[in-house]
Amino acid sequence: MSVAISFKDIVKKYGDTTVIPELSLDIKKGEFFTLLGPSGCGKTTLLRMVAGFNSIEGGALTFNEKVMNNVPPGKRNIGMVFQNYAIFPHMNVSENVAFGLQNRQVSKAEQQRRVSEMLDTVQISVYKDRMPKNLSGGQQQRVALARAIVINPDVLLMDEPLSNLDAKLRVDMRNAIKSIQREVGITTVYVTHDQEEAMAVSDRIAVMKSGVIQQIGTPRDIYQRPANLFVATFIGRTNVIEAELAAGANGEAEICLTKDYSLPIPKLQPLMGSKQPMKVKLSIRPEEFVLSEDGKGIAGKVMNYVFLGLNTHVIIKLENGEEVEMIQQSASNGVVEIGQNVRLAVVRETINVYDASGERNLNRGSGL
Ligand SMILES: Nc1ncnc2c1ncn2[C@@H]1O[C@H](COP(=O)(O)OP(=O)(O)O)[C@@H](O)[C@H]1O
Ligand SMILES: [Mg+2]
Q1: Is the distance from CB of 156 to CB of 188 less than 8 angstroms?
Q2: Which end of the chain is less enclosed by CB atoms within 10 A, N or C?
Q3: pLDDT digits over 214-259, tens only?
Q4: Which atom of ligand 1 is nearest to the CA of 42?
């Protein structure tokens, strides 16, 4: 049976150092939930609290409303998968997967049935008699996953499970993990520092920085409407540009990028109460710049471009000396030349506008 997990004002201290100050989070039953953030932000610490390997210095951790703070790890019915597989080298694949069942008073026949079913699920039945040393990294990770799930845990915890695999295998395995999780339907907490991996596997993501959750949302929410500039720059690529939010000629809110290029953004009108221009920071993703066809836009010069097949990445130096990146679909004939003067227009519907501190996204809640 799968459970809902809730953190209420959870605190983690190592000695006198507070690593997680009062964190609250609700993970739904059956959800694939990812903790994402840079190294050292507290992801593993949080996961170990769920597993029961870390003490909890404040607040309450619950599974289906039941407080778990002091329940020992062995009584939490949790399956875990780590970066370094941790499968037993002296046991073959079937024995590794059966291991968790042996301590659980499951009959031999039932063990065999469940192991064989699980090997089918993770698609390694043909290797059932092999020793781990004769398996690839991806196959070993499938064994680890099978071993974690075969016990029918309430929660599956995974800490950077794909870090040791090469790039192509990582993509294959993340697809496998996602579809296996969907099939088994088990509440999963997944830890990674890789934003693309997080977007590919998760129902929802919590982006963390220094023990504090910056934003919780679906991959799409987090990419399209990042709550602050930290999230905007951590998820995907973006250009951060300073601008002013001011009332334009007809009184509507406008973002002034240069003295002759402004973008009307009427939905930001309520912020214009004071009528004073307000310094803002814009997050403009590379795909939110387009080459202007009507001569309006920010003037710049093409410094370099990289052809990557489907897309071409173009580096452009703006009038003020800042460099920005634009991505456009490659045309059959090259569309830009190094040294070319261009004007960049901005897709105003999708860019994000932050206050000067970068802490508050002005679009959020504005219906934009
Ligand atoms: N056992 C420990 N004792 C003291 N500090 C620790 C311990 N484990 C982790 N930390 C510190 O807690 C912070 C979060 O670490 P961790 O949860 O491992 O981060 P992440 O998994 O996001 O990389 C880091 O500053 C780390 O140095
Ligand atoms: Mg970690």
Answers
A1: yes
A2: N
A3: 999 999 999 999 999 999 999 999 999 999 998 877 778 899 998 8
A4: 17
Output the CA 31–ligand 2 centroid distance in Å: 21
Tokens 């099978």 sit at which residue?
Answer: 146
CATH topology assigned to domain 5-233: Rossmann fold (3.40.50)
Find the ligand nearest to 159 CA.
2
Q: Where in the chain is the domain with CATH 2.40.50.140?
A: 239-355
Residue ranges of the chain that CATH labels 3.40.50.300 = 5-233
Instruction: Kindly indicate whether the domain formed by 239-355 is annotated with CATH number 2.40.50.140.
Output: yes
Regarding pTM above 0.85, the answer is yes
Short-list 72, 46, 310, CA closest to 189: 46
Instruction: Please choose, from the candidates 281, 331, 285, the residue with its C-alpha nearest in 3D space to the C-alpha of residue 305.
Output: 331
For a ligand 1 pocket test, name from 11, 12, 13, 14 the mutation site with the most ligand atoms within 8 angstroms of its C-beta: 14
